[in-house]
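Weekly structure sync, notes
Attendees: PL, DS, HV (note-taker this week)

Item 1: Xylose isomerase
DS walked through the input record. Source organism listed as Catenovulum maritimum. Sequence as pasted into the shared doc:
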Amino acid sequence: MSVVLGDKEYFPSVGQIQFEGRDSDNPFAFKWYDAERIVAGKPMKDWLRFAGCYWHTFCGQGHDPFGPGPQRFEWNNPKDAKGRATAKMDAAFEFFTKMNLPYYCFHDTDLIDEEDSSVTEFGQKLDFITDYAKEKQDASGVKLLWGTANLFSNPRYMNGAGTNPHFPTLARAGAQLKLAIDATIKLNGENYVFWGGREGYISLLNTNMKQELDNFAQWLHMAKDYARKNGFEGYFFIEPKPMEPTKHQYDFDTATVSGFLNKYGLADDFKVNIEVNHATLASHTFQHELQVAADNNILGSIDANRGDYQNSWDTDQFPNNINETTEAMLVFLEAGGLQGGGVNFDAKTRRESTDMEDIFLGHIGGMDTFARSLIVADEILTKSKYKELRAQRYSTWEEGKGKEFTEGKLTLEELAEIGTAVGEPEQISGKQELFENIINQYI
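Item 1 (cont.): predicted structure, written out as tokens:
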């Protein structure tokens, strides 16, 4: 991939990031991410399908609830919306190509400021900036992993978008949704994401939950039907999150989303986009959410980040925990990878990280963490007794009466008779410490 620059080079101190191996002392080089390395039968780049995220990387400035951000990015300097949008896109594609990222993703309002635009005016703005994005994609080879609409930041969506109790507001959200789907199709986006930041409630006292969920399902069916009619062949992803900003969000976790998709007949077209930090906010592990998705055939894509164990909010830090990511990659590999999606870095540098190069360092570390974990997980699955030990724990279901039970061939009376004859069953160790030691051995 060749570096694509605009009229100005925004990161002149950083060249194209290359793989140099774990013995390299170069902070601007991959130690583990070797895109062409074959892991479990195919190149690492094809398993992970890394994507840069527009919002945190190019729209955020390190702000928090207590004040504006200290990060000063030159692409925010132009006074007019179109000038800021093109400058930001120049910086973004310089970054994507220097990082050798094959994909990127965005919210509609990341690409160009909505400001006080009408639907028609915002549609014209999106046409302008997506024309420019198409030129950048063609020049660089970088593809759009997925697009989405920001239907949570504007005050008009304070009570939700697709679940809003007020029909005119839901319709306004539908108009913005249509524009975002159009932009995604125009840029050959491979998927489309719904993150329902305000699709939930603050208080049940004033909430008709059933109507809101029924309306949301209808809204999603309309979006799916429109996209299909206009040639979109990819998956739609729902991104689970339990709370924040609402008290309770309807897409609480992967199991909740799975139940919703099956109830409303959406499971054929929709998968989940699982975020690490959202999993922990739901009191789950990342690997738990991946396993639930894999078991229900809805493992679509991943938002890669991490939370802070001392903070109970969405801190969106870059991933760096090898043990946890290795456990996740075990699930990932046994599931056969992702369906349609990739690993996109919904992560941001810390408020205090104000050098332009810090953006590169965060992504390099995150990509290396996933790459190293993928390698380790593959070695565990192919070289260790991990799978054999787990199978042994469930061996009583593979033959005899245990197998008859799983096949539905036993009545409760027959089960009770077997249980009476068994008496007190022998005690079988779960061997958790051994499994944990295997992880550490291969790391």
